[in-house]
Amino acid sequence: MSVINDVSEGLALQNYELKRSITWKDAFWVASGVPALVLFSIGGIAALVGSPSWVCWTLSVIFGFFQAFVYAEIAGLFPGKSGGASVYGAAAWVRYSKIIAPLSLWSNWLAWTPVLTVGSSVAASYILANMFPSTASIMTAKLTILDLGMLKEGLEVRINAVSVVATILLLGTFAIQHRGILGTAKVQTVIGLVALTPLLLIGVVPFITGDVVSSHFTPFVPLSGAWDKAGWTLFLGGIYLAAWSSYAFETAVCYTREFRNPETDTFKAIFWSGVLCLVAFTFVPMAFQGYLGQEGMTAPGIVDGSGVAAVMATMAGGSGVIGNIIIVMLVLALLLGVSTSMAGSSRTLYQGSIDGWLPRYLSKVNEHGAPTRAMWTDLGFNVVLLTLSDSLFVLAVSNICYLVFIFLNLQSGWIHRIDNAHIKRPYRCPNWIMAIGVTLGFVNAFLLGAGANVWGAGTLVTGSIALALILPVFWYRHYIVDKGVFPAEMLKDLHTADGLLSAPKAGWLPFGALALGLALVFGANAYFHGSLW
């Protein structure tokens, strides 16, 4: 019986590893779905901010580009780990707090996984809008399950045609992901070449044809009418929400454990993904606004996203059959973003389980090296989210989690330099860029406080509750399942002596950074909104 158990355990361990099967180019194409995230909220931000909305996108993607250099350095420290920057950041914080470290992973996953919901919902709305008139019964019918008006006016749990079609799209994405990262990368390379074409055309063609009208950028004031407190609140709310999309190319470092040559592939993957996003998130919003103008940007179909594809097809010079082809390509671009999210967020769950932060059942992978249980968890969670009636609210709450992750991981850059100065760095971020990254961590804390409640009075509280859910999850895994001892895998790549973490060297500084970050969040919220509700 003992021999049988040993053999069974050995067979199980054969499926316990991700595979080193991709290069930075494969990771680039997996991350190429990120530019499509601009479609999620381009109308909502324009309708909120007004003519300066394109600046929100430009500033946000520039912030994200500088931040990426910090992630590239810390990712290089962990060639044996998957899951992205939150995993590498957690390894910095664990010496100082067993609670802050898992919060890094949890906040990242809660930020990334709703891409599945929002992306599939927008894609489903494009498909349905192209097939049926807005007055058709299939477009208006719904089954209301629960009223959530106490969180935000009009928010409810319901089932309608969009949620059903979106669920079908998610299942198709899951089938692709099931083949492992190399198979996913091959599919995404083909889809990416097709899907990114209309986005690039949308960002270029209107400037060439003269359809970008200069008067559509004036007056350069928020919709409140002036650069007063109310105007700045709207503007900061726009930058806040844009971050959820424009920072997201950091997912390119999620696959370090699957790179054939992680020492060189990690930096190349995130750098070239960042260049792609700089172009997309700068020119697409600018062209979109210059084409439509403020009146067009605040039309109902633009605000809720359902009419964005049709407008973009016209912008790219398409009508009739060509217009329909462009819409199909935009749907593929959205599904590319969904696939990118499922690949990255599932690996965050997987590595969080391996390292002892999250439930043990998430550490299972299939014969292709795909973390299937984490993927099923992603899928199930998002099928529930698809029943919520307001995807922008889901996005705004998700972004609270995202900016918490961003703050923690930008601070982890200098913490790693203090505590892990002895570890070889395949890429070392220039000191001046590291300083910018640390500063941007506090800028993001300010944006969180100033911008979150622009999207609903209870947004900040709802996001805080979502973040707090990690406490019972981690407590059960660490203290009940693991008896207060971290798995050996958590210490992998940290070059520890005798499997023990070295003593922290940064003293009170990490706690001072946390205190300043919290002060900025709640101070900005108090100034711009007065209360949490």
TrEMBL record:
Keyword flag Membrane: yes
Parts of the chain that traverse the membrane: 27-48, 54-72, 109-129, 157-177, 189-210, 230-249, 269-288, 308-338, 383-410, 430-447, 454-476, 508-528
Alphabetized InterPro entries for the sequence: AA/rel_permease1, APC_superfamily
Keywords on record: Cell membrane, Membrane, Transmembrane, Transmembrane helix
Localization (cell): Cell membrane
Membrane topology qualifier: Multi-pass membrane protein
GO CC annotations, alphabetized: plasma membrane
Domain of life: Bacteria
UniProt GO MF annotations: transmembrane transporter activity
Gene3D superfamilies: Amino acid/polyamine transporter I (1.20.1740.10)
Pfam families tied to this protein: AA_permease_2
Predominant cellular place of this UniProt entry's protein: membrane
Stored PANTHER family: AMINO ACID TRANSPORTER-RELATED, INNER MEMBRANE TRANSPORT PROTEIN YBAT
Protein's name in the database: Amino acid/polyamine/organocation transporter (APC superfamily)
